[in-house]
Design brief:
87 residues, single chain, YaeB-like fold
Length: 87
């Protein structure tokens, strides 16, 4: 029996994001962080980091990820969303 190590996908930045953002996204991809699919665009996902949300396109075979956009997480809106869904 052999161990097969899954290689992390190639990450391509299409908008010149900061090295810190690229590093966080690489870490999220390596740890299989949860992602939310874009219901209107197949292959597009949002991945939430500690302080940012990353909008990416994943190739179907999983070998490459394109970083399209990054924005700050709105923690207040997330709390309100959780409170409203619990009611």
């Amino acid at each position: 029996m052999t161990n097969v190590h899954k290689l992390p996908p190639i990450l391509e930045d299409l908008r010149n994001h900061t090295p810190e953002q690229i590093a966080e996204l690489r870490l999220l991809l390596c740890t299989d962080a949860p992602s939310r699919p874009d219901p209107r665009r197949p292959g597009f996902f949002e991945i939430s980091g500690a302080e940012s949300v990353y909008y990416v396109f994943r190739y179907p075979n999983g070998s490459k990820v394109l970083l399209l956009g990054v924005w700050e997480r709105d923690h207040v809106a997330e709390l309100v969303s959780c409170a409203c869904s619990a009611a």
